[in-house]
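Two entries, shown back to back:
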Amino acid sequence: MFKRTVKFLGFRISLILLVVILVILAIVLGLMLGYGGLGGKNPADIFKPSVWQDFFAKLNGK
């Protein structure tokens, strides 16, 4: 019984981790596609803090 429960929990945890990794990957790829492909800029620039500071400044109306 204990062995089956541990196996079940291990499967659930690995499934949750897989979903989290896939969601993070989809977000990163979406940001890169949107910034680089649609915005016409370098996709790697999305990881620069200055891009995010500019983004949040525009959201706040500064």
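entry 2 starts here
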Amino acid sequence: MYQLLKQEGRAKRGELKTVHGVIQTPVFMNVGTVAAIKGAVATTDLHEIKTQVQLSNTYHLHVRTGDKLIKEFGGLHKFMVWDKPILTDSGGFQVFSLSGLRKIKEEGVYFNSHIDGRKIFMGPEESMQIQSNLASTIAMAFDECPSSVAEKKYIMDSVERTTRWLHRCKKEMNRLNSLDDTINKNQMLFGINQGGTFEDIRIEHAKTITELDLDGYAVGGLAVGESHEEMYRILEETVPYLPVDKPTYLMGVGTPANILEGVERGIDFFDCVYPSRNGRHGHLYTGKGKLNLFNSKYELDHRPIEEGCQCPACKTYSRAYIRHLLKAKEMLGMRLCVLHNLYFYNNMMEEIRNALDEGRFAAYKKAKLEGFLENDKK
């Protein structure tokens, strides 16, 4: 159950009560695709870096290890030893990203596994069954994520099919949640708004899926090639047609600046691989913009990655030492960078929530964005 606590313009401050605890929003979900965050981050680390929600991938867990095995362990929470909320995405994005390995039909999608080439079929019912086996807190509806450069006719047909799939997802989840052997009978379902960069299709689809009275609503199919300006335009046009009293989730986005802009336009949930992926390559987020630890100017730098940061890396180690680890290809260097970046994101979300609580989000956003530009001016 979602409660809207406060609004500043369209920016929302809320909380979502789930069977695995309360999620304070706006929130960034830490991406652990195969039930672990890349970069040797342990579940025990997640508490220290202020993680509220962990996100895992339905398709990847289905093809490797398998959702039925994870069900035998009592679900994903027990398998990875995590007691807070988990969101699982439906596998729909792989319909987009594995375009060379799949065929889309009305019943669902036929894949060749990217691991061993074996044939896989996934439709709305299969996606819901896999996510039910994983027993995540929030399951995402199975959709197609069309390319941002697809023709309007294709996107219209795709969105209509996604709507038909959503009805099937809801029906199947209701069935699964009523079964005796279902681990999480309170699993929530979020629907996904699609429509490329066509605001008329987006708005119509938002109106249609709102009628289904789901637990939450995502905006999908952005950050797949369009400009940031186009993304912001679509959010401005679409989000007002999604229910304000339900959580909204912008899928796969983004940079710290993207998140601030998304919050301003009414988004509650975010996820992105940037903090972990960039961290593994020594690219670090700070309040003064990004820095690259491979840069030689940090070779003798005694300072932490960011002064005042309370992440495990900054509390103990210098830039010079972490740079040395990265150069020596020691896994600890990568791990410390990922921990810092995730802490930075989670801590920024906490700052955003505090700013909204105190009615000063607009001022916070302005100061934060100006801070990010500091390194660019040097």
